[in-house]
């Protein structure tokens, strides 16, 4: 373990593995360590035996659930936007060659007590019960405007300054009603509450545009989401492989890994088992940096095993359902995520569903009732409550670059925002996902 590195990364959660891969590809010498003996950390995927060991130690899973190895149950379940930042990072790093993806069947939203499909085509929009006839015309004008909008082409702005006007003003301009605003803001733009209404309209317009671009990116998509076969545990391992290809060193099962600081309080290495590896800076999840993060919220999540698809979702094998805050009388949204044996995450004819939200009361499990009510009969249910930590500082002073915890959303957009923010704090510049990765391009030329 002794030696000198540019960076030491602690924890093999998805965020840490992406950063490790990006830094290795950038030419830095990276040592990656984890106190666990497996990849994934907080974002690992568990087989049935591991799931029982986590929630019901000493008990064994019922035989009728099928073989343990057939399950890959995500600890932090999330789908990927087909044209989102994570997919762009996967392409930039060429990690796609280690993974196999499958489309997610549908995106749904709770509206007036009903589970409604978020329209994926113009024909679906015309038939959708989410809007009345006249509202559909107004919404169509709004969506055409968003789809045609180009930041660099003023002709597409139609006299509107989206940097100056609020999103509420943009909705008003197109005459959209409260129900439409609710599903657009939460099921398309994926905002977690309504604070965005008073913010400039441009970021939300781009989020809605991303939703549309993701649905149209690949032919035949019925939702904007994709998901890897065998669960999200495949992602950290894929980025770990990437880091290793570019010289990264991995050490698991380092239970006593501890950050070492100099007299000025700056991180200069990591010690474990009596040895110390030196480095210029340390990256990791909050659990490796006591006193350097604070809990900002709590997430309650129910993991459920079902013997059927979620009712009212067209018998879908994989779905996301968003329950906007106003629809269920809350301050924050609730999320339902469901996958099945079709994505190789459960035994044959079994579904794995999750319900998650931000804790708002002293009885977190009771808060999940609106989401659990949508699932139908539940074979098994496990509930967890975790604190979501955020770093106190940006890392520039003490050389400790700390990731945030995982929020309750069932998509990766906020996760990748944190990763790209970490990358910028570490390197001093944005990751240019529109360019070709220079080291990959060089490697491909050598192979040719």
UniProtKB/TrEMBL annotation:
Domain of life of the source: Eukaryota
Range of residues in the leader sequence: none
Coiled-coil portions: none
Gene Ontology terms, MF aspect: Rab GDP-dissociation inhibitor activity
A Gene Ontology cellular-component term: cytoplasm
UniProt-listed SUPFAM superfamilies: FAD-linked reductases, C-terminal domain, FAD/NAD(P)-binding domain
GO BP annotation list: protein transport; small GTPase-mediated signal transduction; vesicle-mediated transport
PANTHER family, A to Z: RAB GDP DISSOCIATION INHIBITOR (PTHR11787:SF8), RAB GDP-DISSOCIATION INHIBITOR (PTHR11787)
Family: Belongs to the Rab GDI family.
Protein name listed in UniProt: Guanosine nucleotide diphosphate dissociation inhibitor
UniProt source species: Tetradesmus obliquus
